[in-house]
Amino acid sequence: MTPPVAVVTGANRGIGLGIARRLAREGMCVVLTARDRGCGEAACRGLADEGLAVRFHPLDVRSRAQSDALAAWLARELGRLDVLVNNAGVLIDPRGSRALDVAPEVVRETIETNVIGALNVTQALVPLMRQGGAGRIVNVSSELGQLADMGVGSPAYRMSKTALNALTRMLASELAASGIKVNATSPGWVRTDLGGPRAPRSVDEAADTVAWLATLPDDGPTGGFFKDRRAIAW
Questions:
Q1: Dihedral, CA atoms, 20, 35, 183, 198, nearest 10 degrees?
Q2: CA–CA separation, 20 vs 70, rounded Å?
Q3: CA distances from 59 to 6, 9, 22, 67, 120 (A)
Q4: Cα angle, residue 204 at apex, residues 203 and 206 outer, rounded to 5°
Q5: 132: closest CA among 184, 175, 87?
Q6: Do the Cβ atoms of 36 and 13 come closer than 8 Å?
Q7: d(CA 40, CA 57)
């Protein structure tokens, strides 16, 4: 039997790289994607040196054409898709920005990557996942997008993650009868280039819930928001 195939977007570093490593250790063939070919290929070589099954494919999630090209490559080269992790994202809010002063261009660029990017990739890859009769989609979100505890700061990022959570719910409903489960997760504040060295959580901790959601049994949840394998409020 061929191993399950997982695609991880934005996986050349940070949380995405940690997710790719964890899923490969779970026995999956991981397709690591990134906008920068050099960085993506270097990340792939590093994981391959650890004895892990990884392949690279370039992908700018903002491009529907590149998402479609990835889908065609997967069908041709691997013939299946079992897991999609929509991890690619940006946080470009200026420090101290508020909703009343954030530039619309910052909001637009953030949503283009964090929401429309996830939509592009999901729309392109779900048909291949459907062919297998099952699948798992994990959207890497953030507690900053929770309406239950919405506050000030990083308005573009917050809005984008709230929208990604809404997309998660819609996809879960639309795919409920297909065997494809769709969930969101908050990795928390993680020690990465984005989170900084003072963050309390490791990349491995962030990747754990993603791996759990990527390997849910048939009776596992769908349409939920999780942190540390526990449901949290939207």
A1: 70
A2: 17
A3: 15, 8, 21, 7, 11
A4: 65
A5: 175
A6: no
A7: 8
CATH number, domain of 90, equals 3.40.50.720
Strand partners, 230: 227
The counts of H helices and E strands in the chain are 7, 8
Per the structure, how many domains does the chain have?
1
HSE-CB at 8 with a 13 A cutoff on CA atoms is 30
**pLDDT per residue as tens digits for the range 28-85:** 999 999 999 999 999 999 999 999 999 999 999 999 999 999 999 999 999 999 999 9
Q: Residue 66 in contact with residue 36, Cβ under 8 Å?
A: no
E runs forming strands in 3-120: 5-8, 29-34, 54-58, 83-86
Show the domain range for 95. Answer: 5-231
Catalytic residue numbers read 157
